[in-house]
Amino acid sequence: MTMQNVATGYGLVEAPLWDSAKGLYFSDVLNGGVYLLDLAGQVSLVIPKRRGVGGMALHEAGGLIVGGRNIAWVGLNGQETKILLSPEAIPGAIGFNDFTTDRLGRIYVGSLTYRVFADEPKPGFLHVIDLDGSMRTISDGIMLTNGLGFSPDGGRLYHSDARGGLVRVYDVKPDGSVGPWRQFATLGPSGVADGLKVASDGSVWVADARGGRVAVFEANGTHRTDLKVPLPMVTSLCFAGNDLSDLYVVTGSDGAGRENCGTVFRSRTSVPGLSLSPARVVLANS
């Protein structure tokens, strides 16, 4: 697969999100800001300054759900930001990383209990924000929460634990809670499971933050193949395009020997991805 460089010059690119009407949103975790790579290939800044955005989702009312110091709805037309979940609601939490949505529009998100690049790791939690805005904690013991994604039938939830060295899988119950986790796959002794997405055939595509690759696993957890990426710190990925067969892969600068070389790459796949439902969590609270 040929990886085409479509945007570069960022510190740590994360949270790629496809909007069929507008293009690809992505964040720069270190330097701050959320950007849009539009359908004409032009990049613009849509949310200035906000740092640490490790996950994003569309909302059915418009605007974006973004992570970082809290989970918030940000309007793109000057509306007031609305906080959906703050770390004060979770003992020991200091912020949030990646997240995803289920078919109903609930938000599944992991909390962080330490500064990732500065502190000793401590386990965090997995939460669900229900449509009425309430929050439930549904799992624990995640050393560094990262990518989340549902199987095509919605019955399983995959969850990267970057410092646990594995990808978890949970069985999803009808009320949106999950059963006990079990190991789905590992990325080997030096691999770091970062962002992930699930394809239409049930395969699970995992960014390797130290391996310069996207590792692809069958639905049963066996390794299918690796997609090589030109930079070593592969942080996340996103299926995109009218047929969801464009693959965007994003990277950070670590290991490349130079600063601010985080890049958005684009390729084509033979397997389309799954469309992600917009969040439908109530926006009444601010």
Describe the structure.
With 286 residues, the chain is an all-beta fold. 0% of the residues lie in helices and 47% in strands. The chain contains no helices and 24 strands. The chain has a 4-stranded antiparallel beta sheet, with no helix packed on it. Strands 2-3-4-5 form a 4-stranded antiparallel beta sheet, with no helix packed on it. 47% of the residues are buried.
Break the fold down into its secondary structure elements and pairings.
Layout lengths: L3 E7 L2 E7 L3 E6 L5 E5 L4 E5 L8 E3 L5 E3 L4 E4 L7 E4 L9 E7 L5 E6 L11 E6 L5 E8 L2 E6 L5 E6 L4 E6 L10 E4 L7 E6 L5 E5 L4 E5 L5 E6 L5 E7 L5 E6 L10 E7 L18
Antiparallel strand pairs: 1-24, 2-3, 3-4, 4-5, 6-7, 7-8, 8-9, 10-11, 11-12, 12-13, 14-15, 15-16, 16-17, 18-19, 19-20, 20-21, 22-23, 23-24
